[in-house]
Amino acid sequence: MNAAPAHVDETRFSSEREAVMWRQQELKDIESLMRQLRFDLVNNQDAQSAKPRLKELKERASADNLMPAFIAGTHGPGSDARPELWEEWERFGAGFHDMEQHIDTLIEAANAGEYRAAAKALSDTGRSCKSCHRQYRYD
C-alpha cells in the first residue's frame, strides 16, 4: 500500500470509527495469538498444535490485512494512533514488512521442529510489534 487510505470509501469499512475499533480489536487478538503460540512452541514444544495459529498469525498480522484500517487522520480521541503514523507512512509499512519476515522465519522454524529457533523468531516478532507501538501508539 503506497499511501494511507484518504477516505473510508477507499476501504472495506463503513466508517472511520468502525476502522479504528476493528484495528484495535484485531491487534489485541494478534497479541493473544502470540501468547498462545508461546505456550505451544516454547512451553509445550508442540508445532502441530501451533500450525493453525501460525497460519492465522500470518494472515491477520499482514500489512494487507491491517494497513487499510489506518485511514488518514484516524487518530485523536478514541484512537491509540499517533499522527506521526501517517507522516511516516512508508516507514510504518516497512515495519509490517519486517514483522512479516519474522513470522515467516517463525513458521519455518516451527515446521522444522526447531523450537529454539522458533522461540527466537517469536521474540523477534514481538519486538517488531513493540517497536512500532512505541513509535506510533499512545500508551
Q: Could you describe the 3D structure shown?
A:
The structure is a single chain. With 139 residues, the protein is mainly α. It has six helices and no strands. The protein has helices at 16-43, 47-60, 63-66, 84-87, 89-111, 115-136. Helix 1 (16-43) packs antiparallel against helix 6 and helix 5 (89-111) packs antiparallel against helix 6.
Describe the secondary structure blueprint for this structure.
Blueprint: H1 16-43, H2 47-60, H3 63-66, H4 84-87, H5 89-111, H6 115-136
Structural class comes to mainly alpha
Cα(first) to Cα(last) distance is: 26 Å
| DSSP, total strands | 0
Task: Tell me the major beta sheet.
Answer: none
Which residues form runs of ≥5 with pLDDT under 50?
A: none
Task: Tell me roughly what share of residues is in helical segments.
Answer: 55-70%
Silhouette: elongated
Order of helices and strands: HHHHHH
Q: How much is the radius of gyration in Å? A: 16 Å
> DSSP strand (E) fraction?
under 5%
Annotation field: number of helices: 6
The averaged pLDDT comes out at 95
